[in-house]
Amino acid sequence: MTEAARIQREVLVVEGMFCASCAAAVEAVLNRQPGVIAASTHFAADAAVVEWDTSLTSLETLRAAVARLGYAVRTLSEPADAAAQRELKLGARLAVALFSGMWAMLAVAGLYFGQPSPPVAYGLAVASGVLSMPALLWSGWPFYVAGWRTLQARVPGLDALILIGVVLSVLLSLIALAQGRSEVYFDTALMLVTFQLIARIVDRRVRADAASRVRALLEPGEGQVQRVTAFGQTEAIAATEVKLHDRLRCTVGDTLRVDGLLAEGPVWVDRARLTGEANAVLVAPQQPLWAGDRITGGAGVMTATGLVGQRRLDQLASQVRRLLTQKPAWQRQVDAFARRLLPLATTAAVLGAGMVLWTGGSAFDAAVRALAVFVIACPCALSLAVPLAATRAVAVATRQGWLFRDVEAIQHFRIPQRVLLDKTGTLTEGRPTVAAIHCHQGIPETRLRRIAATAAQCSAHPLAQALLTLDEPNSSEGRGEDVPGKGLIWRDASGETLIGSRSWLAALHHWIPPREGNRSESHLVFNGSWLGCFEFEDALRPPAGTAITALRRLGCTVTIVSGDREAVVGALAQSLHIEHLAGQTPEAKLALVEILRTSGLSVAFCGDGLNDGPALAAADLGIAVAGATGAAQAAASISLLTGGIEQLLRIFSLLQQSRAVMRQNLVWALLYNAAALPLAITGVVHPMLAALAMSLSSLTVLLNTARIRT
């Protein structure tokens, strides 16, 4: 076996990761396994991308290694484990911490700010410990578990620091009580837990579960299909039960659940889920059909070639998730800082404790000095800096109808040099409409409209649906049929109506007058006579032209990137005076984005369909316009509830301001730690004062974040 053949790559869903430190532990464990070439983990997507040599290790071995850390691991095609999906109930933990902390702080206030007698002071100290226990034991439990896991994996981060700070605070407090003293530090541990719960809740709201959104790509795997038996009968089975080479019947209205080859046909399919284009496509026998295709005309039988988990749709889903799990530069920097945090804090604590012992202090006093250092070293403001600013930006954006999916879109935003726009559904409405009606001399347009609407009621073809909007059908009492690739036939009491292409009607020996034009057209023949024709177009969204002009003034190069025909895309691009690329597959769109980014250009991509998913995920800024599919929303950095590209300039403005505030928060948090740590080492800062300073630092970050607005 060649070396290339031995290399395998897989996207693993890792369920139960609590924070970036958890992801770092998973990544470290995977990278330590023999045979692993590379592993990258992203807790926001609940996923790890692993590449390994199959001659040295196996997928089962890698999964077992991660499972030993306490996480549930599965591949994309495997069903989710309901037990592993249970909510961590961070809100409930915070409520307990606040309620317990409120009463504990009352006891602490009486202890520190009053002048109680020794017996009363001791009683207040005991009360603060008892009242703190529910929060310390239950509310802080996720941090202790995460901290212990990262210590085991030898990649300690913030959670390990919190674990040490809480344990040291409680131990010193218990020792003091055992000695009959009232100098306790339960309040310090409470502040550590409470502020970290707030930070994690905010962070989790920003980092919506990318894994659940990507599952939208796998939706056609659910449902039933009609399998043709050896005796020619049909039976309904689940899509997951389909086997290779099974014969499946497909009729008008069906959404295909597996890939296959058309054995009997032809059929018309709406391939908008994969290509983004609403125009129906004629599929002839021995041509491929894809999961997600919707049959809009004709009926046929297909042979299954791509089962659930192996379809083109699944490949796109995996590709999007890989892009989402690629670790950005800022995350790598945070991980590196987290790995150095505990050794730095431990060194500083030992230095502070050593100074106490050097000057003749007791071991207890040395431990208190070390506790103050650990509390100061806990970067609560640093952990709040990014999620708070991101949450504020998300809240402001939500009021405008913009849903943020990715914090990195804020942190690394710059005005894009290239803006790539999908056509159908992004620049245009995505629904064919009748643009012009041409009647035979002497034929009233009202009559032509009524005949067309009556005949069109028999078809689900997009063009027929456009004709239905022209008038009310005369009657549903008639018989109609689709002629795949050609048109439709309607017969009722008044006669026979044919609507379709020029070539089809001419082949039936009907006279069709010559015409020239760039639009799609359908001709109508009634009882053997040509009565007129209809021209169709997909209307441009009203604000699109103005928005493109504004983007060009901003310095952006705007390009239409579409899967539609050259004639259609070229005409639209010419009317807007911008560049265009036609006939682009999902893979081609992704390749274009990657080429532009590799050349150093910042890229924004706007789209609405599954075919846009990989490009949306790969772009510096992916924007899914209103009405986009769940797949596009899953891959995009921002999803719009209303409107389209006319929102881009305002989105850019919010991103710029939010990025500035986020950086200010980070600078302040780092300055706080840099200034406060020497004070704690030299004994200027008491543990209680350290916890208060930590709170004030977090409050400063909060107030600065409130400045973000549209």
Distinct helical segment count = 26
Q: Into which percentage range does the β-strand content fall? A: 15-25%
So what's the overall shape?
A: elongated
Number of strands: 26
Span between termini? 59 Å
Chain-averaged pLDDT: 81
Sequence stretches where pLDDT stays below 50 over 5 or more residues: 82-87, 207-221
Q: Give the structural class.
A: alpha+beta
Strand neighbour order, sheet with most strands: 14-26-25-24-15-22-23
The largest sheet, given as strand count, sense and whether it forms a barrel, is: 7 strands, mixed
- Helix share bin: 40-55%
Rg over CA atoms: 32 Å
How would you sum up this structure, described in words?
By secondary structure, the protein is of the alpha+beta class. 49% of the residues lie in helices and 20% in strands. It is built from 26 helices and 26 strands. The strands form 5 sheets. Strands 14-26-25-24-15-22-23 form a 7-stranded mixed sheet, with helices on both faces. Strands 6-5-7-13-8-11 form a 6-stranded antiparallel sheet, with no helix packed on it. The chain has a 6-stranded antiparallel sheet with strand order 16-21-20-19-18-17. Strand 24, helix 23 and strand 25 form a beta-alpha-beta unit. Helix 13 (363-377) packs antiparallel against helix 25 (648-681). The radius of gyration is 32 Å and the shape is elongated. The chain starts with a helix and ends in a 5-residue tail after the last helix.
